[in-house]
Amino acid sequence: MGSALREDPRGSVPQEVPPLKRLVVGITGATGSIYGIRLLEILRGQADVQTHLVISAPGKRTIVEETAFTVRDVEALAAHHYDIRDIGASIASGSFRTAGMVIAPCSIKTAGAIASCHTDSLIARAADVTLKEGRPLIMLLRETPLHIGHLKCMVALAEMGAVLLPPMPAFYNRPKDLDDIVNHTIARVLDRLNLPQTLVAEWQGTARRVSAGGRSQPHPALVRATRDPRAARAGLRGRVRRRRQP
């Protein structure tokens, strides 16, 4: 009988799963590069998350035009960063286990490439791998208005399992500045990934207005409209006319 074969390090014996979560982050040339930057800033403070960053060529240009960051500043926020043309990178393979991928912001060009499985860039390839391995792919799609081609692309992505999360500002939390608006979207991303965040508190419902006597009071504007609906409509028409004046 021959001796035992030597184990091939490239064989099918699985390596130990790392205790930290690997998350791929893509930044494309769509407006809103601050979303990807803020996500990296938040994740940098989480010791159990390891970020893998890819920035497209247009994305690098947008970072410089829209923010005070340099490309090198942004790359330094990630644990690892890759060239957009490096389709042989670790994140291009499904055997490199990750917790998912976030593209923030995501251009329509990138969305179209992913929807058609045209993986000629590392961002598109990493996204395709994320989908085929059944991992969460969150896309902060930035485009408006949308024509039918955009909508069909979005439907295709949703059918493939992607999560379309356009960065739409919310106002029920009464944002005080641009940071509040950006943080609200990033908080939704982190919630979707089941990662802890303290950016936005959990919504606990609308608090009713209570008078001194303990009775709930409707909003003053609603009271005025209920008492005199014709006056309310006239007031609205007047405000519209004033806005239209040059």
Question: In words, what does this structure look like?
Answer:
- It is a single chain.
- This protein is α/β, with parallel strands linked by helices and 246 residues long.
- The chain folds into two domains: 21-192, Flavin prenyltransferase-like (Rossmann fold, 3-Layer(aba) Sandwich); 209-244, no CATH class.
- It contains nine helices and eight strands.
- The chain has helices spanning 33-44, 57-66, 71-76, 108-115, 122-132, 148-160, 178-192, 220-227, 229-244, and strands at 21-27, 49-55, 80-82, 101-106, 137-141, 163-164, 209-210, 216-217.
- The strands form two sheets. The chain has a six-stranded parallel β-sheet with strand order 3-2-1-4-5-6, with helices on both faces.
- Helix 1 (33-44) crosses helix 7, helix 4 (108-115) crosses helix 6 and helix 8 (220-227) packs across helix 9 (229-244).
- The radius of gyration is 24 Å and the shape is globular.
- The N and C termini lie far apart (96 Å).
- The model is unreliable at 242-246 (pLDDT under 50).
